[in-house]
Amino acid sequence: MTVTGIEHVLVLSDDLDATRDFYCEVVGLHQGSRPPLEFPGYWLYAESPAACLHLADRDAYLRHIANMGLGAGKGSNGEVDHIAFDARDYESTSARIEGNGITPVRNNVPGGPRQLFVDDPNGVRVEINVKTSLEAWD
C-alpha cells in the first residue's frame, strides 16, 4: 500500500494565535473542530473535510511527546522546510497576501504552476501553487 497524499502538517509555535491568524488571513484556511488533546493548539482546514494543518504550542507539545516516550523529532524546533498548498485564483491569492502587508516571492515553474512563497510567524516557508487547467502533472 502506498500513501495517497498529505494528511496534515504539524507546526509548533511559540505564538499560537499569531500563527493561526497567519494561516487563516494570509493563506486562506479556516479554524475548525479539534479533539480535546492534552496540549493547546488549533486545527485548520481548507475545502476538504479533513484538517490539513495542525498547530501546537511548542513547549506543551514537547512535554506531551516526552510523556508518551517519544523524543523530539528533527522538526520539533518549529523549522519545517515548507508547507505547500494548492490554490485556484492567483490574483486573489496574491491580493490576500499583500493585503496582510506581506510581499510574496513569486515563481513560475515552466509548464507548471505559478507559485507564491511567504514565511509564517515561526519562519516556516509556505508555498502556494496555482495550477492552470492545462497542467497534466500533480
The name of the CATH topology is 2,3-Dihydroxybiphenyl 1,2-Dioxygenase, domain 1
CATH-assigned homologous superfamily:
2,3-Dihydroxybiphenyl 1,2-Dioxygenase, domain 1
State the domain count.
1
Oligomer: single chain
Order of helices and strands: EHEEEHEHEEE
* Helix run count: 3
Give a structural overview.
The protein is built from three helices and eight strands, in the order βαβββαβαβββ. The strands form two sheets. It has a four-stranded mixed sheet. A four-stranded mixed sheet has the order 5-8-7-6, with helices on one face. Strand 3 (41-45) and strand 4 (51-57) form a beta hairpin. The chain has helices at residues 16-27, 58-67, 90-99, and strands spanning 9-13, 30-32, 41-45, 51-57, 82-87, 105-108, 114-119, 125-130. It has a single domain, classed as 2,3-Dihydroxybiphenyl 1,2-Dioxygenase, domain 1 (Roll), CATH 3.10.180. It is an alpha/beta fold.
Short description:
The chain has three helices and eight strands.
List the SSEs and their pairings.
Elements: E1 9-13, H1 16-27, E2 30-32, E3 41-45, E4 51-57, H2 58-67, E5 82-87, H3 90-99, E6 105-108, E7 114-119, E8 125-130
Parallel strand pairs: 1-4, 5-8
Antiparallel strand pairs: 2-3, 3-4, 6-7, 7-8
Describe the structure using short key phrases:
138 residues; 4-stranded mixed beta sheet; 3 helices; 2,3-Dihydroxybiphenyl 1,2-Dioxygenase, domain 1; alpha/beta
